[in-house]
Design a protein that fits this description.
This protein has about 550 residues and is an alpha/beta fold. About 30% of the residues lie in helices and about 25% in strands. The protein has a 17-stranded mixed sheet that branches. It has a two-stranded antiparallel sheet with strand order 1-2. A hairpin with a 4-residue loop joins strand 5 and strand 6. The longest helix has 20 residues. The chain is globular.
Length: about 550
């Protein structure tokens, strides 16, 4: 089981009263006026992570059971639907791309030589996971764009003075080794997805990330296996023709053919002294086909309408999905990725916050409880929501996201993702201090967690977004005990079939975190202030564009 098994032992023996039946037989945990309760969290997680839910994969019977269960809980609480047109569910249509055999990426040089980079050279790994799943063009110019970053807020623009319309753009991976980037925690600008979107915005046909891995090596084959998996996107989101990875050797050769020194170019790119330039005498042609399938899934939204400023909306979110069922059983004969911790626990947390906040009466601002689809496929439900918001993003006060509640004894620290990004952390810190706790960063800069859950699409859209994580400074034992226990928990259960419910999960840290989040959400819904991004945040300028809507 996933929890840290502590002194509570079997205390949480699922003592839940008043179970009823509603909405196609979904069991209901009876609402009562009380604070967050561990036993209720446990019961929700027990049900949602049961084998019968089939790992809650979008497009399956497990999805139907999950959404029916969530809707039944909200109907029993007395909340109103928060989706479009007064419905509980927001349809989200996804496209799944599976690579078809025979695709090619060909490079042609001024000396007449043509090389198939996806053939014997094995130097390009490219997918056409956008639109109709077909990338087909001949003789496109090639532009080396350094790190592919345009960040006016940081005085950086790799694209200054060049038009990349109709070109294939090649970029270096990650962030420059410069004080404007390369902090302890990565920024938005180092993400492959950011670089793809930036190139697309400028009219490029394709973007290739140059990667310092030897073509044909074991590491390269591992990347090829990752790139070759089916990929899923939200239907209707325009994007580039193709994207992927390029081994460093051909790029270095093309630079030399342009009388350049690759090491010098790369050093200039990392210093901000470089501007994108065309690689003369080099063109790229692509013919890539994907098999395209459609998956229908849903976000589920419930709402407590505000009394005085109902158009101001505080969103509390969590993803309901997990990764489904394996093709073959493990050593224990287990097929199901139950996802008790990830993210039945966060789903249960949102249900509990909804119950407690609703029981305490309406507030001036509205609160929407959003259960997002297809997070495990790439945050797709939340990306879809911000592309098609039910409630205006300009007057969305904040998104408070819950992904994997802490399952441990109480902690003195309250870790968050994106430390230093938004004033929401200051609001949370004031509440935590009353309880003798301290807000900290997540301690895992290598993971880039701030860009990996459903708060991130809200951040991209400018909405201040917060996600609380797991503390490791236990009240009893401190970091010496808490840090290794958390690491063991992560290694043993994250995206493993062992992520199952157990009656002896320790919910105490989850409850104390949810109590603080309940106070934070209540304060946001009671007040008239607008949280914002802190100076230096890459999301500050986007939020500022809609400032007039919040006057």
């Amino acid at each position: 089981m996933i929890g840290i098994r502590g002194a509570m032992g079997g205390l949480l023996a699922l003592v839940l009263a008043g179970c009823a039946t509603a909405n196609a037989g979904s069991p209901v945990v009876a609402p009562q006026e009380a604070g967050v309760e561990a036993a209720r969290l446990s019961e929700h997680v027990r049900i949602l992570s049961d084998d019968s839910f089939q790992g809650r994969e979008p497009g399956t019977d497990g999805e139907r059971m999950t959404l029916d269960y969530l809707q039944a809980q909200y109907e029993a609480m007395g909340l109103e639907p928060g989706g479009p047109n007064g419905q509980w569910r927001q349809p989200v249509t996804l496209t799944r791309y599976t690579p078809a055999p025979g695709g090619s990426v060909r490079a042609s040089m001024r000396n007449g030589l043509t090389v198939n980079l996806t053939g014997a050279a094995n130097a390009a790994l490219v997918r056409a996971t956008y639109g109709d799943g077909r990338a087909q063009f001949e003789g496109a110019p090639v532009v080396f764009a350094g790190y592919g970053i345009s960040a006016p807020d940081r005085g950086w623009d790799d694209y200054a003075g060049i038009d990349v319309e109709g070109a294939v753009v090649i970029v270096l991976m990650g962030e420059p080794d410069d004080d404007r980037f390369n902090g302890e925690y990565p920024s938005l600008y180092g993400l492959d997805s950011y670089k793809t979107e930036e190139a697309h915005r400028r009219g490029a046909l394709a973007v290739l990330n140059a990667i310092a891995v030897q073509a044909g090596s074991a590491q390269w084959r591992g990347i090829a296996g990752y790139v070759g998996r089916p990929s899923t996107q939200v239907v209707g989101v325009e994007n580039i023709e193709a994207s992927g990875y390029l081994a460093m050797e051909p790029l270095m050769g093309w630079i030399r053919s342009n009388d350049g020194d690759p090491e010098q170019w790369f050093a200039e790119a990392a210093s901000g002294q470089f501007r994108a330039r065309r690689l003369e005498g080099v063109t790229l042609s692509m013919d890539i086909q994907e098999q395209v399938d459609t998956i229908q899934t849903y976000n589920l939204l419930a709402r407590i309408p505000g009394t005085d400023r109902p158009d101001d909306t505080v969103i509390v979110s969590a993803h309901w999905d997990h990764v489904g069922v394996a093709d073959t059983p493990d050593g224990n004969g287990d097929l199901v990725y139950n996802g008790a911790w990830d993210n039945a626990s966060g789903t249960a947390g949102v249900l509990e916050l909804a119950r407690v906040l609703h029981a305490r009466g309406p507030r001036p601002r509205s609160i929407v409880f959003a259960h997002m689809a297809a997070e495990e496929m790439g945050l797709l439900g939340s990306h879809y929501y911000v592309e098609h918001p039910v409630w205006p993003l300009e007057t969305t006060v904040a998104d408070v996201n819950i992904d994997m509640l802490p399952l441990s004894p109480p902690t003195r620290d309250l870790a968050i993702f994106g430390y230093g990004q938004t004033t929401l952390e200051d609001d949370l810190a004031r509440l935590a201090a009353i309880e003798g706790r301290v807000v900290t960063d997540d301690g895992r800069p290598d993971e880039g967690f701030y860009y990996r859950s459903d708060h991130f699409p809200f951040a991209l859209a400018g909405v201040p977004a917060l996600m609380v994580w797991h503390g490791v400074d236990w009240d009893e034992g401190g970091r010496d005990v808490g840090a290794p226990a958390y690491r063991q928990q992560w290694d043993q259960y994250y995206h493993e079939r062992s992520d199952e419910w157990s009656a002896d999960i320790d919910w105490r840290s989850a409850v104390e975190n949810l109590d603080l989040l309940e106070q934070l959400v209540a304060d946001l819904a009671d007040g008239d202030q607008w949280p914002d991004w802190k100076p230096g945040s890459e999301f500050l300028a986007t939020r500022a564009q809609s400032a007039s809507a919040r006057q």
